[in-house]
Amino acid sequence: VEAELLEADVGMFTMPGFARDAVEDMIGRVADLNRALADEGADVQSVVIGDDSITVTGVASGGDTVNAELMLAAFGNLGGLVGADVTFTEYEPGVATAAAEGSPVYLALGDSLAAAVGVDGYAEGYVSQVHRELSLRDGVVYGLRNFGISGETTGTMLRGSQLDDALAFGDSQDVAYVTIDIGANDLLGHLASSDCADDILAPACASRIELSLAAYAENIDEIFEVITDSFPDATIIFLEAFNPFSLGFEEQVAFEAQSNQALISLNSIAATAADQHGVIVADGFTPMRGTTTVTTHMTDTPPDIHPNETGYDVLTHAIMSALP
User: Fold this and answer.
1) To the nearest 10°, the Cα dihedral for 124, 128, 133, 135?
2) Residue 239 and residue 307 in contact, taking contact as beta carbons nearer than 8 Å
3) 141-190 pLDDT tens trace
4) What is the pTM assigned to this prediction?
5) Given the DSSP bridges, would you call strands 296-297 and 175-181 parallel, antiparallel or unpaired?
């Protein structure tokens, strides 16, 4: 058996495409960088190495830009780079409201996840975090408009105001990114019903789920068509639904295993429609599977299906990882 290391996530830095023997060397380099910047009151939070760039994120006290030559020296030989090759960009934390000024614009659609239900405010939700990460990644201070509505389904999105309001807003804006999470409420209400309480495979429950998935297939296809037609130049990302009942006991609890399969079916329908419309799919299901005791409020009293701060961090990473 031969394995090739494609990506290594070690502590506070990520190295896509590096060989295995580079890991130890890079750990040393990041440690050197932290020591070098400590005298300037700076602290490194992350180092991301891409094909043609190195992005260092951190906090510098005092408001002064850190010394570029010192940073390069700490990394060692980087192909003859000089201080002029280093650029600095200041970023604000995730916005604590549903809107932020800037251009082009990141536009968000969705349900309670987009609306950041489960945490203290928008700043801790995935939309504001993605907005911050996009600005960091692209070196652009993007505008933001979050149209997410708690409780939204694909049906209410098509019949209600969210989609229309987003299209009206975007008509006069340069929209660079659109994210959308929708579909969990199409299904979860059925899974929590008395028909499904004992056995998801019971005829009454199976019928409800089958009808729900059929309606979802029609609705999500129409939603993707409307969004892609309205924003043909934007990068559009769909966030798959996670299963809040996936507590980590799938092998022992039939309901958890069956509800996972129901969510997989829902996400598969969305992925097929997304592929037909050129929409990027972010896997919000797999990294949350079996973890919702720590990524949601399901162990609270009363239990709540919505993510906590950790869960929203996971969903943010899912979206950013899906982007080219």
Assistant:
1) -150
2) no
3) 999 999 999 999 999 999 999 999 999 999 999 999 999 999 999 998 88
4) 0.74
5) unpaired
